[in-house]
Amino acid sequence: xxxxxxxxxxxxxxxxxxxxxxxxxxxxxxxxxxxxxxxxxxxxxxxxxxxxxxxxxxxxxxxxxxxxxxxxxxxxxxxxxxxxxxxxxxxxxxxxxxxxxxxxxxxxxxxxxxxxxxxxxxxxxxxxxxxxxxxxxxxxxxxxxxxxxxxxxxxxxxxxxxxxxxxxxx
Amino acid sequence: xxxxxxxxxxxxxxxxxxxxxxxxxxxxxxxxxxxxxxxxxxxxxxxxxxxxxxxxxxxxxxxxxxxxxxxxxxxxxxxxxxxxxxxxxxxxxxxxxxxxxxxxxxxxxxxxxxxxxxxxxxxxxxxxxxxxxxxxxxxxxxxxxxxxxxxxxxxxxxxxxxxxxxxxxxxxxxxxxxxxxxxxxxxxxxxxxxxxxxxxxxxxxxxxxxxxxxxxxxxxxxxxxxxxxxxxxxxxxxxxxxxxxxxxxxxxxxxxxxxxxxxxxxxxxxxxxxxxxxxxxxxxxxxxxxxxxxxxxxxxxxxxxxxxxxxxxxxxxxxxxxxxxxxxxxxxxxxxxxxxxxxxxxxxxxxxxxxxxxxxxxxxxxxxxxxxxxxxxxxxxxxxxxxxxxxxxxxxxxxxxxxxxxxxxxxxxxxxxxxxxxxxxxxxxxxxxxxxxxxxxxxxxxxxxxxxxxxxxxxxxxxxxxxxxxxxxxxxxxxxxxxxxxxxxxxxxxxxxxxxxxxxxxxxxxxxxxxxxxxxxxxxxxxxxxxxxxxxxxxxxxxxxxxxxxxxxxxxxxxxxxxxxxxxxxxxxxxxxxxxxxxxxxxxxxxxxx
Lengths: 170, 594
Description:
Helix content of chain B: 40-55%
Structural class of chain A: mainly alpha
Largest sheet of chain B: 12 strands, mixed
Strand content of chain B: 15-25%
Largest sheet of chain A: none
Number of helices of chain B: 19
Mean pLDDT of chain B: 73
Number of helices of chain A: 9
Oligomer: heterodimer
């Protein structure tokens, strides 16, 4: 309960950023704490917050992998095209962010956590080292390689022919 | 910077701008707090948890009693106060939508005494089982509240792991995840839906209103009449329409009484890949896949060596297997009932010859001992069992050996070898225990005769002493004799055990043509007859003495079997006199002591 009081906001924010849905973030936060009190792992953890953070990140990325892709029907697509250009831009931007997040969720746990903490949370490698209990130099090289992997994934997605596929709603 | 890289980093920065309103965030955190408060603290192997549950039960007790009284009063023939009962279709629909679950399993097996002097054996198992449609199945076994073992059936990698924390080893094998369906949640209720069952109404357990469905042996049609009795009650949570508690008691073919409880179900808990990732400490060693099955058994007649039954259903079917007599007939390619030893000795010799031929095709014990030991390690935590239980299991395994054909079977040796390994483990722990030596000698003799039967050039049956076995038994029996004699003093006179051991020694010395030692042992028997109370045997013993002086055989018996004249008894011949054979043979001293 103390952990929730102290770090609930931060964990909730992270869940929100990865899922991009406040409702899902709330659900996952519940799942996270139910899981934490139901298992013994956190009792053994040297850094309970770091443990909880990693569990939360896993939950969020797992959710992203598991959720079903909802293809936009032709009717919906036509409707979208009728919207004003600013709305369309917003939808496209949202689509891009979803693609990047989906791509990250396909990376290994360490890779995706480093990318998230460095580029989304804007933490330094020294700060990430404390969070993930790894050496900063190792994380720097991990991050560099992970970005390269992510670039490959994203470029593949971008190079595939455009389909009548819409946003993946949360 | 690569343009895609810049695009990605821009997106990541943008993702960081996603914010949820403070109000919504606070509401979500508050909901999480409530979820924690409503969650039972269920930590792995945590004693605190059971204490908390007890407290919880205590608090619930008063309210529960009142509720039970109210519900029972209005509840007639299982119909709830509003006249409604749970519909099976709803339960099936609900359970069909379950993606993951976990529950706790408590199992107690009470083995009846095979002999009045046998200790009653009670085996207790506690397991926690986790199932995820996505990830697979995990079982955690506990011994004295400590995690003793884990098994994983992993869907995504098609791997199967068994980790023993007692032995610090693990096994990893390929596994066909298509068989995963077997773990599906609907199997928890399958048996009840297919059998005639009785709705026994509602009650309150732990503050939850549940409705019970009861199966009894007469109604349990799925059991193929294997059960001496079977009764099981499934309690469905009225609110969730999902199983809440399963209580089962059964006994199969006079085996142990089994009490089996499945409880503390969690439905659709959130599991991550990590929950189904085996964590194997660096110092654990990998056990190679056993070669026992492929190397030891003949394809046509192999009974798969699968020790999982020891874990899953206890030792039940070790003791009773109705297929035994059929197998004996099949394996010997003949009907043993034709062979009355008294009037058809040639046929009996022929069968002994067959036995020896089959036995000599078995892999040699010492070449497969390690494989057998590994099989045992995977099935039971033998290190945690006391010697008495090891010996008891060995006895059951020997019975199983005889049931599946004994020396007439190509596959029975697996059980006999396991029995011998267990006795050797007990003996390694305590080499000065005469009872353990008895059981070890029994196991060794179960697998090998002291005299082989064969044919000479002219096709006549001849007997050849099994010198190696006789020497091995002599060494053990000599040690046992010294232990027993060392305990004799004024207050502890010699007893039947001394007499039986001395008789065995005489026979073994004689088998090895050591007549001098045989005679000195006979002298000891005669000298101690008064003190030990076996004067009644003196005429036979003195006859034996005369025979040994002339270097002739020793042929008196000090034991009798319940079914001595039964054709069945031929299976247990060609052993030393104290050899007991399976428990149903009922070997007992021939004469009472003075």
